[in-house]
Each structure stands twice: as structure tokens, then as C-alpha cells.
Design goal:
Oligomer: single chain
Strand content: over 45%
Helix content: under 10%
Shape: elongated
Structural class: mainly beta
CATH architecture of the largest domain: Sandwich
Radius of gyration: 27 Å
Order of helices and strands: EEEEEEEEEEEE
Length: 184
């Protein structure tokens, strides 16, 4: 003789709460009181934001910026205006490595080119920044020489300004990479 029975349940089964979460680096984050806290690392440019109730967006602020501008005559143009606030209000230092190229497309110096490399730093109190001078600038220039790029700031923005030559249209391209270290 065989025995058979029917298991009957009413309502939903209790939810399964994960006890740990596997991370990309091979470690696991273990919940404490069923809570996992996800934070961006201060000063790294990594931020977190809640999406839907079960989503977390992790954003990495790109620390490499590229830009292009054209100068007409001797009117200065900002090649870069980089907002340094992605790290929040953390005081610290940003060190920059910048590469710049310029090529004359019209005017008396058509066909001439120039190149610059620069390294330097900005000090930030978390709400404003200022360049630590002098920036180390190397220039590789056709004749006539272009004015050297100028590093300034406005509020929390690091600014790089370029200036062309009288009568020339000059196309500029720059790439700036920076790193940060602050109080945390």
C-alpha cells in the first residue's frame, strides 16, 4: 500500500533575502541587518544614484577630457573648462597632463602647425580651485610662435585658454587627463 498526500500552502512564500553579493574583484559584500550600502569612493569621481527601487546607478566621472575650438585672429578661446566638482566638496589637489595641437587652416600662416604639452596642478577647497603655478609647458612650434596656453580658474572650473595669431584661423584640439587626491 502506498501513501500519498497533498501539501497545501496558503499565501505567498516568504521572500528570499540575499545574504551576500558577489563583486567584480572576487570578494563578496555581506549584508548587515539585510542592508548593503553602496557608496562612491570620495575623491574618485565615482558616484551612486538610486534608479528604480531595485536599481543603483554607479557613475564614473571621466578623468580624460577632449575638446576642439577654432581661434580667429588673436581672440582667445577656452579650449577646456573642466568642472572639478564630480568629487563633491572634498578639498584636495588635481594634477593635470595636457596635450594640445594646433593647425592653421586660413590666413598668412596657412599650413603651419604647433604642439604643446603641459603638466600642472589645481588646489581645491571643495568649492573653488586655483592653479598651482607655474604649469610646466613645452612648445613645439612653427614660425611664428603661438602664445603659450594659459591656465586659470573660475569657481570650481579649471580653464585652459588658447590664443591664435592675427589674420589666421587656427583649429585646436586638446586632451587633458587628471587625477585627484584629497582629504579622504
Amino acid at each position: 500500500m502506498s501513501n500519498a498526500y497533498l501539501l497545501e500552502t496558503t499565501g505567498n512564500l516568504p521572500p528570499q533575502v540575499p545574504l551576500s553579493f558577489h563583486l567584480d574583484d572576487g570578494n563578496s559584500a555581506v549584508a548587515s541587518a539585510n542592508v548593503i550600502q553602496v557608496d562612491g569612493l570620495p575623491g574618485s569621481g565615482i558616484t551612486t544614484q538610486l534608479g528604480a527601487s531595485n536599481q543603483i546607478y554607479i557613475t564614473f566621472a571621466d578623468t580624460v577630457q577632449t575638446a576642439i575650438v577654432t581661434t580667429v585672429g588673436t581672440v582667445p578661446q577656452n579650449l577646456f573648462s573642466i568642472n572639478l566638482s564630480p568629487v563633491g566638496t572634498v578639498p584636495g589637489v588635481f594634477t593635470f597632463a595636457v596635450k594640445i595641437v594646433a593647425y592653421c587652416t586660413a590666413g598668412p600662416d596657412i599650413g603651419k602647425g604647433w604642439g604643446f604639452t603641459a603638466t600642472g596642478a589645481y588646489l581645491s577647497n571643495g568649492t573653488t580651485c586655483a592653479p598651482l603655478t607655474p604649469f610646466d609647458i613645452n612648445s613645439f612650434q612653427s614660425s611664428p610662435a603661438l602664445p603659450v596656453p594659459v591656465f586659470t580658474s573660475s569657481g570650481i572650473n579649471a580653464i585652459l585658454t588658447v590664443t591664435g595669431l592675427a589674420g589666421d584661423n587656427i583649429n585646436w584640439k586638446g586632451e587633458a587627463e587628471y587625477i585627484f587626491r584629497g582629504t579622504v
